[in-house]
């Protein structure tokens, strides 16, 4: 189940907004359709040891869209107010168990997770890192990610997925173009070595 959510965007809030996969394309897919999916996302990315079972995913989706707006467009006052309100909620608190393990607790883990996400987004948008937030150049993707490469020229959210697809497409186009330049038969000629 953990493989259903993508990670690696560079910030928790960026991983969170990727739960609307292929945003703005015909393939757009909602990864938080219900409370069960929202709980699974918290279990994957949150600090809690025990599974979280929220009652609804409505507020999570609303906060996700507010974060996306904050990072990509001019922010409406209502969006700013929502994020400020959510960021002010109690966050998970650490506690030490009798065996010396660190555990994170919250009266309402789902709300505490939203508070962490809103705070992360507010910190990101006001930090120098914000200048390195990029939109994936993948034809179907468009996910946001934090470019941590030294030159700051990263193009894809994931080299293993979007970058690999782009390289395959470029290679196929070169092969097709080269083949057409050689005569353009339906099948490439087979070359035998002796």
Mind sketching the topology for me?
Blueprint (H helix, E strand, L loop, with lengths): L11 H6 L2 E2 L7 E2 L4 H11 L12 H15 L4 H11 L5 E4 L5 E4 L3 H17 L7 E3 L8 E3 L12 H23 L13
Antiparallel strand pairs: 1-2, 3-4, 5-6
Helix pairs in contact: 3-4, 3-5, 4-5
Fold and architecture overview:
- The chain is built from six helices and six strands; from the N terminus they run αββαααββαββα.
- The chain has 194 residues and is mainly alpha-helical.
- The chain has helices at residues 12-17, 35-45, 58-72, 77-87, 109-125, 159-181; strands spanning 20-21, 29-30, 93-96, 102-105, 133-135, 144-146.
- Helices cover 43% and strands 9% of the residues.
- A two-stranded antiparallel ribbon has the order 1-2. Strands 3-4 form a two-stranded antiparallel sheet. Strands 5-6 form a two-stranded antiparallel ribbon.
- It starts with 11 loop residues before the first helix and ends in a 13-residue tail after the last helix.
Key features of this structure:
mainly alpha, two-stranded antiparallel sheet, 194 residues, ABATE, globular, 6 helices, single chain, 6 strands
């Amino acid at each position: 189940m953990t493989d259903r959510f993508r990670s690696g965007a560079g910030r928790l809030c960026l991983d969170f907004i990727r739960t609307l996969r292929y945003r703005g394309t015909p393939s757009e897919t909602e990864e938080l359709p219900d409370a069960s999916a929202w709980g699974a996302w918290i279990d994957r990315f949150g600090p809690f040891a025990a599974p979280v079972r929220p009652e609804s995913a409505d507020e999570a989706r609303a906060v996700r869209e507010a974060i996306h707006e904050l990072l990509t467009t001019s922010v409406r006052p209502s969006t700013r107010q929502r994020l400020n309100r959510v960021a002010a909620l109690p966050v998970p608190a650490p506690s030490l168990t009798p065996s010396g393990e660190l555990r994170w607790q919250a009266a309402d883990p789902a709300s505490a997770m939203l508070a962490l996400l809103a705070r992360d987004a507010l910190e990101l948008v006001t930090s120098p890192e914000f200048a390195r937030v990029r939109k994936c150049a993948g034809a179907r993707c468009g996910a946001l990610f934090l470019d941590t490469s030294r030159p700051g020229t990263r193009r894809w959210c994931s080299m293993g997925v979007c970058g690999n697809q782009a390289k395959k497409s470029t290679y196929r186009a070169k092969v097709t173009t080269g083949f057409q330049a050689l005569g353009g038969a339906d099948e490439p000629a087979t070359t035998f070595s002796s």
